[in-house]
Design brief:
By secondary structure, this protein is an alpha+beta fold. The protein has helices at residues 10-23, 128-141, 161-166, 192-207, 214-238, 246-256, 258-269, 277-283, 285-297, 299-306, and strands spanning 33-37, 43-47, 50-54, 57-59, 79-87, 95-97, 104-110, 115-122, 150-157, 174-176, 240-241, 244-245. It folds into 3 domains: 31-72 and 160-223, FAD/NAD(P)-binding domain (3-Layer(bba) Sandwich), CATH 3.50.50.60; 76-157, 2-Layer Sandwich (D-Amino Acid Oxidase, Chain A, domain 2); 240-306, no CATH class. Helices cover 40% and strands 19% of the residues. A hairpin with a 4-residue loop joins β7 (104-110) and β8 (115-122). Bound molecules: flavin-adenine dinucleotide. Flavin-adenine dinucleotide binds next to β9 and α4.
């Protein structure tokens, strides 16, 4: 990786965020909200059987909730299912595997004291038993020792372009952020950055006394890029290039071209957005082909050429 990626246990990351909120003056209350009524001048919500009132409510309760009647819940086309195992073993490489004719991927991500192994795919496209069979085959192929493994499953947004463009995420006294607002990369399923950024942009809109500007701010910051990603997601997973699957061609290009490898590194670390990706691909097309030809003729030369000095990470 040209920029290091950081792996946090979710409990630690969430704890850090809550600590910051408390330090900034928030009062944290741990209770489940069962209803929200935004019809009146003030918002009324029920938590732990008690009624509360507030000026404004921000819903950041994940992909699956129907607490706000003024907007539509995310449907099967906008959702993705993930299932996997937390395995108490140590590894030091990230693995990602694509399957033929399958919109999604398998992964094995090392964490501090365990491995997260899983699969994600559009909800409703593949029966859960099928996903589980793919996952179990992956675990066997990778020879992962499953002793003490804990199963997990979760539903995430995988928004269609029209949803990102048209779904209501703000009203006169309410707004949604993070997964609730479908702020997730439809290709990779990553949503942590967008959850934090959407919260940040919403806070700025509220401080300016202009909550209605929130969707425009999100669009300018990242949702137009996510829309672009939603339009190309299917092609990335199922499309073909030069007679082979795009994902296969990508892996082959990675092996033969340092320029292409740099590009993929930047995508993984979030330094390359989707909208300028096409231009960069075109701009470096010539170089990529030169490197591929050279690599085929002198495979050792290209390996040493790829060992470039590391760039400093962005702050
Ligand atoms: C297995 C897996 C791996 C992932 N890996 C990555 C990754 O590597 N990188 C990345 O960027 N993203 C990743 N994601 C996506 C990322 O986790 C989400 O996009 C992100 O957590 C969204 O944050 P959020 O705060 O909007 O929602 P969530 O993290 O889902 O938090 C919602 C919170 O609301 C609470 N809640 C729900 N309903 C109520 C209620 N009625 N009352 C009170 N509280 C309620 C929930 O308990 C939860 O604490 C992964 C997701 C999964 C499932």
């Amino acid at each position: 990786m040209s920029y290091p990626i950081v792996i946090y246990a979710r409990k630690v990351l969430n704890g850090l965020l809550l600590d910051r909120a408390v330090a900034a003056g928030c009062r944290v209350e741990r209770s489940r909200v069962t209803s929200v009524d935004t019809a009146g001048a003030r918002v009324r919500l029920t938590a732990n059987g008690e009624q509360r009132e507030s000026d404004f409510v921000v819903l950041a309760a994940g992909a699956r909730n129907q607490l706000l009647p003024e907007t539509t819940a995310l449907g099967a086309l906008d959702l993705e299912v993930t299932l996997g195992y937390f395995v108490p073993t140590e590894e030091d490489i990230i693995k990602v595997k694509f399957l033929k004719e399958f919109e999604g991927y398998l992964w094995s991500f090392p964490r501090a004291d365990h491995l997260s192994v899983g699969i994600c795919a559009k909800l409703g496209q593949n029966p859960t038993q099928q996903l589980r069979a793919y996952l179990d085959e992956f675990v066997r192929d990778e020879k992962i020792c499953m002793e003490g493994a804990k199963f997990f499953s979760h539903v995430l947004p995988s928004p269609e372009a029209a949803t990102l463009r048209g779904r209501r995420i703000v009203g006169k006294n309410w707004a949604m952020a993070g997964d609730a607002a479908a702020c997730v990369d439809p290709v990779t399923g990553e949503g942590l950055y967008y959850a934090l950024r959407s919260g940040d942009l919403l806070a700025q809109a509220l401080m300016d006394g202009q909550p209605q500007t929130y969707p425009g701010r999100i669009r300018a910051a990242f949702s137009a890029d996510l829309e672009f990603a939603a339009n190309i997601a299917r092609r990335i997973f199922r499309g073909t290039f030069l007679g082979g699957a795009i994902t296969t061609r990508m892996v082959q290009l990675l092996n033969h071209s340092p320029a292409f490898r740099d590009l993929i590194r930047d995508i993984f670390s979030g330094a390359q957005d989707y909208r300028s990706l096409k231009k960069r691909l075109w701009d470096q097309l010539g170089l990529t082909f030169v490197q591929i030809s050279r690599s085929m003729l002198h495979p050792r030369g290209i390996l040493s050429a790829s060992r470039q000095p590391r760039r400093e990470p962005q702050s």
